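Predict structure. Chain length: 471.
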Amino acid sequence: MPLQETEADQSGSWSELLSPMYAPALALVCLAVWLHAGDSLIVTTMTPSMVAELGGENLLAWLFLLYILASVVVGGASALLTMTFGLRLPMALAALMFGLGCLISALAGNMPVVLMGRVLQGMGGGILVSIASIAVREIFPSHLFPKAMAAISTLWGSSAFLGPLLGGLFVEYANWRWGFAAFAAQAFALALFIWFQKNHITPQENAKAPRLPWMGLALLTGAVLAVAYAGVEVSLARSTFFIALGALGLAVFLRHDARAGTERMLPKSPFNIKTSTGSALLMVLCLCAATGTNNVFGTILLTRLHGLPAIAAGYVLAAGAVGWSLAAFSMNGARESADAKLIGIGTTIVVSGLVGFALIFASGPVWAIAALCFAVGWGFGMCWGFIVRRSTNLADPKEAQRVTAAITTVQRIGYALGAAYIGIVGNALNFENTRDPQQLGHLASWLFVSCLPIALYGLFAMLRFISIERD
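Prediction complete.
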């Protein structure tokens, strides 16, 4: 059961958050987030060694795509899992699943087996992160919520530096397999830690257990996979077919989910811009999708256009995670009355940063690109926790868990769809065969420009979201 707040209007302090009442729960959610974030980033620096040993260059994109897709799909069922089984059991099983996936990858003899492990890692990580977001809302009183989110964001930002560093250390002094093994050990330890937190994460009482929405999960999987597959080998007919198939699949999924009753994964009218929940989810979807260029092409563009080593390019892009963490940490004391203002300023900074990328990414200087990465991250960090707080406060209390889980799920759907979209654009512009620096610079600018309409629609959804007082 959630720990109850005794004085709703009190101002939370770090000492209270770190007290024996809340510290174990905070450690739990932070460790859950670390597994997902750290593993995602450590694989980036281990990939060249994996490919050198196992081969499978043609499967390289799927190493990341399958992880994202798996986390998207199971993350969508996280709210139902918590409503059925409470917090403790799903989180413990997710940690075990994550650890098993890491072991499979560590022992793999070829790339397809590594991909099997990555699917399990994505499923476990997706559940852990989604339920961690729900746990923050369920366990901590509202005056401690921003500080708990700030702690999680700080850990996420730290992983942006620790992940590549740890991957490099394993490759340099041991083996990429030990990197997966180390995260397997952490996951199994987390599972034990979760299981023994009976005083801080208790099962839900008198919960009527709905069936898991297997049909909805299958539809969502197929839809996102179809859109992603459209960018693997671009041609007008083929790509159009798979995009249309993915769009149809998403429409069928939304229709099916809306009729699923207690088995729904998403809140009611999840993308209706006239409601607070719908406008919030549209904003999150669009802004996350609009970052696709850096997520997919950022490292390779920095190495080819500006001559940076891969690890240096990774740290330029990691400035975004640092900005996110610092903003979340510095804004954690804001009161609920400031939520709309902080969301408006934060999302405007994000969109302004994306416009800046379109203008200067090709020409540099590199420090300015890093500054823009930091600014975009700062914008997200400035508003993210308050998006969650405002959207759940405005929603029907019965929908609060679904709304919280949906924000995390839609965030990852946005990243996946944004990566698929920008992959299609890049292949259509012949990125693979472009080596001339001047032509590559023009291409880079168009990649960022192609994402601006998506970002602007996200800004429009934000204006609607902050103007709504109650559905």
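Summary: Confidence is low (pLDDT under 50) at residues 1-11, 203-207.
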